[in-house]
Amino acid sequence: MSAALVTRGLGKRYRSTWALRDCDLELPTGAVIALVGPNGAGKTTLLQLVAGLQRPSAGSVSLFGRLAPAESPQALAQLGFVAQDHPVYRRFRVSDLLHLGRSLNPAWDQDLAERRIDELGIPLRQRTGRLSGGQQAQVALALALAKRPRLLILDEPVASLDPLARREFLQVLMATVADEGLTVLLSSHNVAELERVCDHLVVVAGGRVQLVGDVDSLLGAHRVLTGPSTGLPDGPGVIHVDRSDRHAHIVARIGRAEPMPGWAARPIGLEELVLAYLRRAREPRPAPSELEMSA
To answer: Where is the ABC transporter domain (predicted)?
Structure first.
């Protein structure tokens, strides 16, 4: 599968502080990619670098084999971006936003934009400042999709929405992905929601990528091990350990290997996996590799 997004040694520094560093990614075309990490992890910095809203202090970005949007109008034309606060000109009518989009984007699809706005039941003459948060988010998504991008970047687009508005936003998004074959890079804190819609995962913490890969492959490579709190296994495949007086629970990357005698293994969920890598990031260790924990 060809790569939609490639970064090599990508980094952004603000004076002496690196917000993102040594970021190497190769993300597949046609995937819905979850970007997960705590506040201040570097997620928004990464998205802004990819979108050309900032210039990197180190490294490079390419989209579909082209230079980053900051360097290439051709790459910019293939990119749609919806920020966390889904900004729209509040005094503009919805029709004004569509006119602006048509004026600025050579591949603009006016029929698509109007159809999506009509499906939402939003009058074209309505001022965007009078729309609900969910409606503004849907209008911002319609504007991004009408650009006919190949890569759609969403930076916490549903963070401020109520549960129903979040569900409706994601339903529209996934229907569009199915119809258009888009590549989507979606940043969110809600791992449970991401698990329903995403097939690729990037975990960022402390300004560095901690984990990246196909979701099913990552879940298949990790197990939760339960055993005695003494004689704990160790090695680069041990990601995180929760220990009590009598028992220990270990998230480990063991592939198909059998755990040690006396230890039970079970499959891991996506949220457990993400949390294990975020906790691991607090204590720098060597990069994980396959750990053979056989007898």
So the answer is: 5-231
Widest distance between CA atoms in the chain: 70
Closest CA to 179 of 121, 122, 109: 109
* Cα–Cα distance measured from residue 18 to residue 14, given in angstroms and rounded to the nearest whole number: 6
- Structural domain contains residue 99: yes
289, part of any domain: no
Q: Is residue 23 part of a domain?
A: yes
Angle at 75 between CA 72 and CA 77, to 5 degrees: 110
**8-state DSSP, 75:** H
Residue 185 lies in a domain: yes
Q: Do residue 34 and residue 56 come from a single domain?
A: yes
Q: Taking the CB of residue 130, how many other CB atoms lie within 10 A of it?
A: 10
Is residue 234 located within the same domain as residue 270?
A: yes
Same domain, 125 and 222: no
Query: Residue 184 pairs with which residues in a beta bridge?
Result: 32, 152
Of 130 and 285, the structure prediction assigns the larger pLDDT to 130
pLDDT in tens, 87-97: 678 889 999 99
Q: Tens of pLDDT along 44-96?
A: 999 999 998 899 999 999 998 877 777 777 778 888 998 877 667 888 999 99
Under 8 Å between Cβ of 43 and 35: yes
Tokens of 51: 């979108």
Going by the DSSP 8-state scheme, the letter that residue 257 receives in this structure is P
pTM of the complete model: 0.86
- Based on the structure, what is the number of domains in the chain? 2
d(CA 132, CA 260): 55
Cα–Cα distance between 103 and 76 in angstroms, integer?
A: 15
Query: What is residue 53's three-state secondary structure?
Result: coil
